[in-house]
Structure formats: C-alpha cells, structure tokens
Design a protein that fits this description.
alpha/beta, Rossmann fold, six-stranded parallel beta sheet, 6 strands, 12% strand
Amino acid sequence: MKTLVFFDINGTIIKRDSRTDVPFSQAVDEFFNIENGMDGVDTTARSDKDVLMEVLNNFNIPFSDNLWKGFLNKYEKKLKEFEKTDVWRENADAVGFIKKLYEKGHQLSLISGELSIGAKYKLEKIDVWKYFPTGGFGEDGLRRFDIADVALKKALAHSDFKPERILVIGDTVLDIQTARHLGAEVISITTGSHSRKRLESESPDFIVDRFSDLSDSDI
C-alpha cells in the first residue's frame, strides 16, 4: 500500500529538551537586544513565526517584513554556530524508522511549526533531511492546520505518487487533531511534550514509546 507519511520534528524526530531551541532563543535575544525573551513562551506545536509574534507583543515591538527578514538572517547565523554541537539529537529510534519507511517506497514529508531553515539544519545533523522532499513549515502559516494544508498540497504535487493512505506521526495532541483535519491516520509517540494519558484522550490510531513498537503490518 502506497502511504504518504507526515512527520513532526521536535519531540518526534529530534529529541526535545532544554537545548533543542537554544539557537532560536539566542537569536531572539541578540537580534532584539533583550534578555530571556523566550521565558514563559510555550513553543509546543506552534509555528516559529507565531512564537516570535508573541515575543514581539510581550516587548511591545511592532512587526514588519523587514524585521522578519532581519531576524531570519540572525537565526540562520545561529543555526550555523550550533550545527556541529549536540543540541540536535535523534529522538528514540527515529533515524532507522525513517530509513525503513523510505526503503519500503513510502513518500515522506513534514508538518512542522519549525521554519524550513531550522528544519534543514536539525535534520541534516542526524542525516535524514534527504528523505523529505517536501514539507509544510513555520513560514507556511501561523497555525498548524494551515501548515498541514500546505504540506499536503506540496506532497501531492511533488510527483506522480498517489497515496492510498495518509499517516501523521507526532508527539502532541495537536498532531492528532491535525491528522483528523487531513482525514489521516495518526501515530502518537510518547517522547515529547504530552503524556501518554493526554495522547490517549484523543484516541490516536497507534500510540508507541518507540517506533520499533510498530509492526510491519502497521505501516
């Protein structure tokens, strides 16, 4: 069965902890000349642009296209600074699982609030960026459903691949809701922001602690 598989990034492919978003946080503080600009800002399942808009509102800084472009330049410089560090690490057994899906002929894509430049640096670090020809990212919309709609459109336009099944894989309740929005099945992994109990409350099709918990017949 031909399957289109969408992955979230942080907490799903990349391990989420206090180091994951250090480059973004430092870019915020340095570009806007503020201290601890990200304190109290919940980044879970949100687009980076939406997060930045909250920071701007907290510090009464008006948004503009020029400001956004300037911040992106600063953020990319920070990403380069950190690309050889260990801030981005594989989550659970994600790398082997992604390679397995690719080798089975499934089409892989991304649905993430991460900006595409951040996604590229993070996933190149663990050598899986090459498996994702398309994706919906933080610059494609402020809300996850909007990003998902763009991601689906890009994936379907990418090639002659016509999926018989669509899967969304993520670590949050919003990933489950996004799957339902797309009419897709969902695999929830318990390695991210939301507990198993909270994930189970949304009745995902599958819930796992590691991707190896899935059988070959599941995908």
